[in-house]
């Protein structure tokens, strides 16, 4: 159903969203999605949504593999940016049929560095709010379909994530991932991996990847993609890795999502 013209989510990005993988009515990583939504509700001081109504959505998504998109906004009202004293939350959802880019799990992907730098804003860091213009600008930087994703650094040059995925690498015998305390989205699959394997959260620049034995991108819908080639923003190759699909990281993540563990499955 359409949103009214004065909806604050539409006007200001004043709201949150989640995209959830659902298989035959069963959501994957549901607790993690609801935990991130709850954290977003607190950060934005939104009224408490009806989480029980959300729990009933996956079963209504239909058979097969689906992506459930749930959007929550502060609704209408207030004066300009000033929110209404007692907002009435508005929410919408859709479910679409979905096929993951399965070749990328095992062949790996080519990725580039984006020119765009993410602004540092700790109060919005981690949550999946609706104001995603930085991601839109970054994704506009390339049109070549051979490039699967773009890496994003913050305005001080620290690695953060990709335009719609998180980033993990293996270096000096440990799995590392960028700290997401100042910007970026804390992915639900990343949070699950933090529970499943020992992850080290680090403040690191792009040069750290030179020391990495393997690098992966991940999200809760596509699973884990090994990076095989990294280009700079002009398309010059910076680095190559053998695609590392036989890692405990991909095994754990794909176990969580019900995706294959090796190319023959
Ligand atoms: C900017 C950004 N970072 C990270 C993620 C990964 O989040 P999740 O694992 O919950 O899908 C997403 C998901 O779309 C995203 O848009």
Descriptive report:
Strands 5, 6, 7, 8, 9, 10, 11, 12 and 13 form a nine-stranded mixed beta sheet that branches. A four-stranded antiparallel beta sheet has the order 2-1-3-4. It folds into two domains: 90 residues, Aminotransferase class 4, branched-chain amino acid transferase, N-terminal domain (D-amino Acid Aminotransferase, Chain A, domain 1); 155 residues, D-amino Acid Aminotransferase, Chain A, domain 2. The protein is α+β, with helices and mostly antiparallel strands. The model has no long low-confidence stretch (mean pLDDT 97). It is built from seven helices and 13 strands. Helix 6 crosses helix 7. Bound molecules: pyridoxal-5'-phosphate. Pyridoxal-5'-phosphate binds next to helix 6. The site of pyridoxal-5'-phosphate (PLP) has 14 residues, from helix 6.
What would you say about this model in short?
The chain has 265 residues and is an alpha+beta fold.
The CATH level-2 architecture of the largest domain is identified as Alpha-Beta Barrel
Instruction: Report how far the terminal alpha carbons are from each other.
Output: 39 Å
What portion of residues is helical?
10-25%
Going by CATH, the homologous superfamily of the largest domain would be D-amino Acid Aminotransferase, subunit A, domain 2
Contiguous low-pLDDT stretches (5 residues minimum) are: none
What is the residue-averaged pLDDT? 97
- Structural class, by secondary structure, is alpha+beta
């Amino acid at each position: 159903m359409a949103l009214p013209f004065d909806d604050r989510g539409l006007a200001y990005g004043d709201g949150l969203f989640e995209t959830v993988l659902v298989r035959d009515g069963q959501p994957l990583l549901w607790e993690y999605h609801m935990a991130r939504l709850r954290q977003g509700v607190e950060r934005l001081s939104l009224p408490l949504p009806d989480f029980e109504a959300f729990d009933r959505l996956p079963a209504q998504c239909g058979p097969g593999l689906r992506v459930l998109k749930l959007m929550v906004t502060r609704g209408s009202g207030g004066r300009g940016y000033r929110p209404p004293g007692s907002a009435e939350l508005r929410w919408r959802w859709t479910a679409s049929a979905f096929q993951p880019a399965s070749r990328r799990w095992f062949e790996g992907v080519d990725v580039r560095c984006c020119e765009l730098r993410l602004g540092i804003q700790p109060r919005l860091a981690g949550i999946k709010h609706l104001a995603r213009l930085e991601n839109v600008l970054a994704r506009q930087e390339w049109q070549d379909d051979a490039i699967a994703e773009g890496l994003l650094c913050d305005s001080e040059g620290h690695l953060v994530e990709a335009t719609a995925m998180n980033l993990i690498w293996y270096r000096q015998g440990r799995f590392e991932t960028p700290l997401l305390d100042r910007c970026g989205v804390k992915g639900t699959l990343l949070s699950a991996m933090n529970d499943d394997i020992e992850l080290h959260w680090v403040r690191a620049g792009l040069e750290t990847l030179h020391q990495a034995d393997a690098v992966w991108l991940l999200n809760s819908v596509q699973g884990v993609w090994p990076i095989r080639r990294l280009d700079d923003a002009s398309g010059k190759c910076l680095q190559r890795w053998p695609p590392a699909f036989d890692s405990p990281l991909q095994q754990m993540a794909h176990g969580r999502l019900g995706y294959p563990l090796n190319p023959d499955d």
